Amino acid sequence: MMKMSKPIDVGLKQIKTLLQKMGGLAMDSIKLSVEAFNKQEDAHIQIEAWSNMILILSEEVEDKATELMALHQPMAKDLRTLRAYIKIAYDIERFGRYALDISEIHRTIGPWKTAGEGPSIDELSGRVARIVALALSLMEVEDQSVIWELASVESEIDSLYIKNLKALIEAKDLDPKRIIAYALTIRYLERIADHACYIAESMTYAYTGKRITLR
What is the pTM of this model? Predict the structure, then answer.
């Protein structure tokens, strides 16, 4: 005899599907924003469309989670998971917003000259893509090794952020626009990594009831 799914289980699965869709859009937004930044191309319209879609889905997650709590009065792990999902929706919404912020830099200050040695954001953006993927994977797996890898990548990102800041401070004869553009972008990427950590903290609390801090 086929086992019937409980309404709360069905609702949780629906919310997870929404979060996965948001995560995919966020990762695409981050990747495109960095690519466009490096090439000094305008990808703002596409990233704005994705960011707005992420925001709409975030509101849908909040509505569904609130409805489940009101109608089914979930207990223990289910309640923690719903609370975590609401917070994660906000964190993913911030991913999209910071990608949009990166895409606005070129529009706001105009093109910058690339002459002279300056920082590169390729290594930093690669680590950020990795930590976002790890954080989103925690909705699928209850694997503590993912937490430790995520914490390690977060430490690497902090080091690269400081390294890039120092490179900007010590660089000579760089276009001031280039300095501003890079300072803003590495800051936005560092903040994306922070929100990836918040997702990991939320999922750990949902699964175990224990609160951890990864930053």
Answer: 0.93
